[in-house]
Each structure stands twice: as C-alpha cells, then as structure tokens.
Amino acid sequence: MKIKFWGVRGSIPIPGPDTVKYGGNTSCIEIRFNGIKRPIIIDAGSGIRELGNHMMLNDLPNGPIITDLFLTHTHWDHIMGFPFFTPIYLKDTRLKVYGPASFENDTLKNIIGNQMSHRYFPIRQAELASKIDYIELKEGPLKSRDDNISITTKWLNHPVLCLGYRFEYQDKVVCTLYDSEPFQNIFSTGPEDPSYDETMAVEGEKTAQMQNKLLENFFKNADLVIRDAQYTEEEYQASKKGWGHTSMEYAIESTKNAGVKRLALFHHEPTYSDKKLDELTKKFCSPDTTGNMEIFFAKEGMEIIL
Amino acid sequence: MGNSQNKTAENFHTIQEYLIKMPSLSTTVTKVLSVCNNPNTSANDLNKVVSLDPVLTGNVLKLINSAYYSLLNQVTSLTQAIIMLGLNTIKNLALSTAVLGNIALKKSRQDNAMDIFWTHCIATGVWSKALALETGIIRSKCEEYFVAGLLHDIGKIPLIHCFPAAYMKIVATAIEKGLSLLAAEKTVFGLNHEEIGKLIAQKWKLEGAISQAICTHHHLTETDDESLNFVERVAVADMLSKITTDGPEEDSLEDIFVETILQNSLIKTFLKNHNLSLLTLKTLQEKSQTEIENAKLFMQIAKG
User: Fold this and answer.
1) HEC string of A167-193?
2) How does pLDDT run across B189-229, given as a tens digit for each residue?
3) Which of B35, B36, B69 should one mutate to test binding to chain A, selecting the residue with the greatest count of A CBs within 10 A?
4) In this complex, do A187 and B93 lie within 8 Å of one another by their Cβ atoms?
5) Residue B248 belongs to what domain range?
6) Sheet containing A294-297, strands listed edge to edge, beginning at the edge strand earlier in sequence
7) CA atoms B132, B138, B143, B145: torsion sign
8) What is the structure's pLDDT at B234?
9) For chain A, is the Cβ count within 10 Å smaller at the N or the C terminus?
C-alpha cells in the first residue's frame, strides 16, 4: 500500500510563506494498492485539485480514470476541492463517491454536487461529462467490493455525521480517524446542578467510555493511523471542547497502547505555521518519547509505503 | 363497497404523505426552538426537551438506528443517542423537525387536542417507567419503558392532523357511547391508530419491544412472547394514565381511582401478578403526577 498526503490542513486552506513545509491545502489522501489499478481517495478538500492534475498526467495515458472517493463527512473543508478535481470533466472517468448521508433527508449527490450550482460555480453538476455514482454509508463493514480491499467504517464524534475508515489489504492496515473528538459524558455529573439526573449521568459516562473503547478497537494493530490532532491539550481544554477535534496529547496517549506502528498527526490547525509545527514535532515526535510507535505531523506531498 | 375502498386508499395516501415530513407537536415546538436555538443549551436540557416530544424522540432513535449496517442491540436510550451523535447533530435534527410544523400564534382546536394528546403520552411514559421500576426492572432499562409509553399512541398524530374535525368527533362519540376507539377509527378512516403506529415504527426503524408497544398495546394477545411483559406494563400504564390524568381532577381521585381500578381486569391482574397493593399504586400516582406537572412546567404549558 502506498499512502500520499495531498492536503493535511484543517478548516480552511492557508497558502503562503508560513505553510510551505507542511502545506496549506485541506484534507485529501490517496491510497494505491499493489496489483490494483483503481486508487482510493479520502476526502475532497482543496488538496484534491493537485491530485487530479497528477492523475491527468500519470494515470490518464494508461486509460480512463477509475477511482473511488471516500468522504469522511460533508463539512466544507472536506468537499470544497471537488469541483476542481479535473477528472470529473472527462467523459470516460468513472467515479464512485462514498460518504455518510446527512439527517436532513437530502442525498449525498445533492450535498456534494450542489456545490456545482449556478450561484456557486459556473458549471452545473448536470453538465459533468464523467459518470459519478454516489453511495451513502453507514457504520460497519462495506460489502460488495470486487477487489480484495476490506473496508470498515466507524462513526466518530464530530458536529455532523462523520466516519473513520479502516482499509485492510494484504495484511497491511491503514486507518483514518478525523475529524474526531474523544467521546465525553456531556451530561451533568454534579448533584448540586439543578438539572442533574443520576440516570443520565451514569449512562452518559458508560456510553462515552464504551464508544472510546470501540474507537480503540477500530484502529487496533494498524500499520498507520491518520489521526485528528488539531489542538494542543491546553488549547482544547481552554476553549475547543465540543468542536469535534482531538488534542495531540490525547491522540498519542490513546493510540500508543493499541499496537499501532505509525501515527500521522493530521488536520493541522490553520493558525499553525511551519515554525510552530516544527516546535511541536520536537516536543511530541522525538524517538526517545514515542516508544515503539513512530509519530509524525503529516506533510503535504509526503508518501508512506506499507 | 367500492366507495369505502376508495376512501380508505385516499386516507392511506393522505397519511403516508403526512408521514414523509412529520413535524414536532404544536405543544412542544416553542420550547424545542428555544432550547435548540440557545448555543449554551446543556445536554441535560436537550435530553429533556427531546424526551418530551414523541416525534423528536422517534426521529432521534431513527437516526441512530439507521446509521449502522447492523446493530445487534438497538439503541433505545436518548442519553446514549445524544452521546453517540453529539449535541450539535441532535439540536439540528430537532430544529429541522420543529420547523416543519406550522407555528400558529393563535391556538386552534387542533392544538388543544394535541395538548391533551401530549399530556396522555407523557403520563403513559411516566407511568410505564414507574411500573417498571416498581416491578424489578433495572434502572438503566427503565428509560426504554418511558420511550415506549411516550410513543405508544404515535399513530394518533396523523389522524389528529390530517382529519382534525372528524377525528375529534369520533373520539367524543366513542367516549360517550363507551365504544372502542380502535373500531371507530377503522370504520371511519379505514386504519386504526395501532396500524398507523406500525407504519411509523417501520419508518423510524423501531423494532422489538417499543414497536410491539406501539402496534399491540390494545391487543396483548397479539404481542410477541418476548415483548409481552414489557408491553403489558405499557398497556397498564396507558390505562392508569387515562384514569388518573385524563380523568376528573384531584378531589375525586380517592373514590374514582379505586373504583375504576377495581373494575379494570388488566390492572387488577397486573397488581395481583406483581404483588402490588393499591397503596403502592397511589404512592406511584402522586410521584407520577409531580413528574407530569414538572414536564408541563418545563415545556411552559399552563396547568389545566
């Protein structure tokens, strides 16, 4: 398996001299599998534009582009690059877009495709030449794939329905776990609070613990985990609770005992410069503190071979 | 015959159309909007407001249970659903359900019927939970009893909404003449509220005991064996709720309560089987009454 990062930034693209090293594009990851022509793309953040151009140069000469796009969720920074993914304008392209549907009774096709409506974009979805199929996902193992890639999904804790993915192929495992916050008991636990309810407090605690345990099982023994680490613990505790992201400290602590070989810290906070990320690398990723698990901050353009 | 079949098909179509976008109850919509539009709303308040609206509760359970390819154990607890889906998703779901309703400033007769219906749902939920607790069900399972009580009559909502005048008329006639409401619904609309409840349970992907409570609370002989004990508590709660909350005011409670209970074979058998005394039931009634009044207070619904 070969994994390449085309966008690693959270929230919004931030091009400029301060983000040259780690990159300013939002989420997009490409996975290629030995012996399988069809690559998998995770998320259509602004990074997918460059990936599309790369595919036009390197894949198209060998035949039509056939690929699967797995969306973690439909927040803007994860879908905004879609209209700029050039292969969708070619008539022979075959694209399958997988992702969680919203609760609003709207289809994935509308949610993604309606970015390409007159008010937002000069080309309408209906005018696209390629054949695009939309498949709405739930939690659990995906069935009916015609290759030997095993794909399982897991609901994450984010302010919209959001999925983590586990890809397994030829004994190698890669997991994505963003955008995600550790599950918390959000119910009042102080009996002095007028709205305190003992049943809610107890069941809330039990549910949060169980969901975090299920999350750990989901990425257990993975060769690579790509994990949300948008904030430091201090930032998270101060003002980012409930925003749907994980602190670096929590991401590292809860991954390192799960038999994971490599942890890519991902979805970088847009206010972080290269200098800041270098400092954080020194703090969190030096070999004498990481134990058996290799930890690094994902960089745009970085390739990992498993 | 042909006309009656046509009428049934037409009513069925009207109800199906209504079910596609079923709004929150007019009784709860103002409170739902105020809680969910407040950025500082606590999880406890959100849980409370959702748990007091049968349509919202159904929609939250539908969302959580339709989110999995296979879920061996259905989620029947709002507390669990709120943690798993997150505050934001629940708030947005609640808002989108609430705004489907037509928020009229002036209360219509239909709204008054809905207020009465809402009180009966809450009372049955409260009674179901109280009976479960009293008969040895573990505390963590009791929320499911509340939900079942809350939802047992969900099939009446489309009838109240789609055919307000006709429905109120048959309810009044059924009470006056002591007739079966289910039979009257079937005759007039071609479908009774248990059958409509079944359609809703399917749409909300509710299975097991809660679905059984919705579809068979008037026909325990048709309840699945594994859900029978559960549904029996809900059916008894339904009766007790009718006797205590929908009936005359407190001053006549003593006499009417005891008298009516002794006439009701379902309640009598239940009390005997579970070794419950009338005194215990009266204690439960006082507690339940307080809980119902608190719910009304929370929803800012005037007493009486």
Assistant:
1) EEECCEEEEEECCCCCCCCCCCCCCCC
2) 999 999 999 999 998 888 899 999 999 999 999 999 999 99
3) B69
4) no
5) 2-298
6) A140-141, A150-155, A163-169, A172-177, A224-228, A262-266, A294-297
7) negative
8) 97
9) C
Predicted local confidence at residue A36, as pLDDT: 92
Which chain B residues in 88-127 lie under 8 Å from chain A, judged by CB atoms? 88-89, 92-93, 96
Q: Flag if A203 and B143 touch (Cβ within 8 Å).
A: yes
Question: What pLDDT, on a 0 to 100 scale, did the predictor assign at position A111?
Answer: 93
DSSP category for residue A224: E
Residue A123 dihedral angles phi and psi, to the nearest 5°: -115, 135
Token pair belonging to A37: 């022509």
Domain containing A202: what range?
A: 2-305
- How close is the nearest chain A Cα to the Cα of B82, in Å? 9
Q: What is the pLDDT of residue B138?
A: 92
CB A93 within 8 A of CB A66: yes
Q: Which residue has the tokens 């849980």?
A: B47
How much is the pLDDT for B254? 56
* Spatial distance between the Cα atoms of A136 and B98, rounded to a whole number of angstroms: 25
- Cα of first residue to Cα of last residue in chain A, in angstroms, is 5
Q: What is the DSSP letter of A26?
A: B
Which residues on chain A are in Cβ contact (under 8 Å) with B70? 140
What is the maximum alpha-carbon separation in chain B? 58
Domain count, chain A: 1
**Which chain A positions have a beta carbon within 8 Å of B133's beta carbon?**
none
- Contact across the interface for A199 and B80, Cβ inside 8 Å: no
Angle, helices A248-256/A198-219, rounded to nearest 10 degrees: 70
Question: Mean pLDDT for chain B?
Answer: 85
Given a contact cutoff of 8 angstroms between Cβ atoms, the answer to whether B61 and B147 are in contact is yes
CATH of the domain at B34: 1.10.3210.10
Q: What are phi and psi of B28, to 5 degrees?
A: -105, -10
Q: How far off is chain A from B251, nearest CA to CA, in Å?
A: 31
All residues of chain A having their beta carbon less than 8 Å from the beta carbon of residue B44 are 187-188, 193, 195-197, 200
pTM: 0.87
Report if residue B303 sits inside a domain: no
Q: If you compute the radius of gyration of chain B from its CA atoms, what whole number of angstroms results?
A: 19
pLDDT at B303: 40
The SS3 of residue A290 is helix
pLDDT < 70: residue spans in chain A: 102-103, 144
Query: Angle B142-151/B78-85 helices, nearest 10 degrees?
Result: 100
Please report the beta strands in A43-161, taking only residues with DSSP state E, as ranges in sequence order.
Answer: 66-70, 94-100, 131-137, 140-141, 150-155
ipTM of the complex: 0.87
Position B288 in a domain: yes
pLDDT tens, position by position, A227-251? 999 999 999 999 999 999 999 999 9
Find the farthest-apart pair of alpha carbons in chain A and give their distance in angstroms, rounded.
69
* A136: CATH: 3.60.15.10
Per-residue model confidence (pLDDT) at position B297: 84
Total domains in the fold of chain B: 1
Give the pLDDT of residue A300: 98
Pairing outcome for strands A262-266 and A224-228: parallel
With respect to residue B304, please indicate whether it lies within any of the assigned structural domains: no
Confidence (pLDDT) at B102: 53
Rounded CA Rg of chain A: 20
Say whether A155 and B84 touch across the interface (CB within 8 A). yes
